[in-house]
Design a protein that fits this description.
Order of helices and strands: HEEHEEEHEEHEHEHHHHHHHEHEHH
Number of helices: 15
Structural class: alpha/beta
Number of domains: 1
CATH class: Alpha Beta
CATH architecture: 3-Layer(aba) Sandwich
Strand content: 15-25%
Shape: globular
Distance between the termini: 30 Å
CATH superfamily: Alpha/Beta hydrolase fold, catalytic domain
Length: 377
């Protein structure tokens, strides 16, 4: 969950500047209860021009108009139907698939502590629009398994990115729109900068999440450090033991923390919680957060990729970034990472009490972003 502290955090604008910039540049999608009446509020072009001139951050969103997706209420769907399995790289990947096999491909990626059910209402909308939708369990979740017991249980950002490239190869997908949140957003960013030829466009919740262990060594003030409490907890052996012992309770607590206004029922949580029973789940989660802090080694075969990522290169493919107005997870302001997107770009603030898990809390807004970013390219 959440973006680890990185160089982008130090680039945030002051309070008045941030307020003025958001007023002028943000496209807002308001989600009114019961979340089936989204609307977009576009602010005046004159205000946008003035603000862009003042701050040097003119939005370069596409002028293309995508068709609106049909209304979808969160919780409408509870199943993907029969899941599939395929060998891809180091893994046997479990995934859901929807839509025509010859449709433009969309790869939807979850994070921690979530799983494919974050997209259970998004996938049918995109499938009905003609997309081939692939929703995989990432390493350490659900039915995805390592092919060898000898493979390091490694959650480096480059390793997870390579997993998705291998999956695309196995499915004979040359190019796809990549959409994700949390670890999935980080992976979308990674894929876009390392393999832009494989990414038609991306939708990334919370923006630019690439980091490096070296970049995460700057101490945070108490309020900022508090947001990363679970990462510091996981840095200890008692933290690993506690996570394993109280797995279901721990992750439900994170859901409430990350989405404080999302009222989900036990059935919704339990569908996802089943994926945490993966035999590699605890090791993958521990390695991810320890590696970010420089407390766990990666694998040397990924050194060159990680070196490239540590330079924090810009995303050049078309992109839409999103944020929920009630996201309780640590996340940078949109202005902190705006310069990291050099292609066609749009930022959307999803209002109405939407938290960290935008695809599941506001599926229509997320699906619309996928369709819209497709029109950028």
């Amino acid at each position: 969950m959440g973006a680890q502290a990185s160089a982008s955090y130090g680039q945030a604008l002051g309070g008045n500047q941030l307020t003025n910039l958001r007023r002028a540049l943000v496209n807002t999608i308001a989600i009114d209860e019961p979340f089936d009446q989204p609307r977009r509020r576009f602010l005046g072009s004159a205000a946008m021009t003035v603000a862009a001139a003042q701050f040097g951050m003119m939005s370069i969103a596409s002028k293309a108009k995508a068709a609106p997706v049909p209304p979808v209420k969160r919780g409408t769907h509870t199943s993907f139907g029969r899941l599939k399995q395929i060998d891809a790289g180091l893994l046997n990947v479990g995934y859901a698939e929807a839509g025509p096999a010859d449709g433009p491909a969309v790869l939807l990626l979850h994070g921690w502590p979530y799983d494919i059910y974050s997209f259970v209402d998004v996938a049918p909308v995109l499938a009905s629009a003609g997309y081939r939708v692939i929703v995989p369990y990432i390493r350490g979740y659900g039915t995805t398994r390592f092919l060898s017991s000898e493979t390091m249980r490694n959650a480096q950002q480059s390793a997870v990115g390579l997993d998705m490239i291998a999956l695309m190869d196995a499915l004979k997908i040359q190019k796809a729109i990549i959409g994700g949140f949390d670890w999935g957003a980080r992976t979308a960013d990674v894929m876009a900068v390392l393999w832009p030829e494989r990414c038609k466009a991306i939708v990334s919740v919370s923006g630019y999440l690439i980091s490096s262990p070296e970049g995460n060594q700057t101490p945070l003030p108490p309020q900022g450090a508090c947001a990363f409490w679970y990462q510091y907890y996981f840095a200890t052996e008692v933290g690993k033991a506690g996570y394993e012992k109280y797995l279901a309770e721990f992750n439900k607590f994170i859901w409430h923390q990350a989405s404080p206004k999302w009222v989900f029922d036990d059935a919704t949580y339990n569908r996802t919680a089943a994926s945490f029973s993966n035999p590699d789940h605890v090791d993958i989660v521990m390695h991810d957060y320890r590696w970010r802090l420089g407390l766990a080694e990666g694998e040397r075969k990924y050194d060159e990729l990680e070196k490239r990522l540590a330079a924090l290169p810009a995303v050049t493919v078309p992109a839409i970034t999103m944020e929920g107005d009630s996201n309780g997870a640590a996340h940078p302001p949109s202005t902190a990472y705006r310069s990291k997107f050099s292609g066609r770009y749009d930022y959307r603030l999803i209002t109405g009490g939407v938290g960290h898990n935008i695809p599941q809390e506001a599926p229509q807004a997320f699906a619309q972003a996928i369709v819209d970013v497709d029109a950028f390219s």
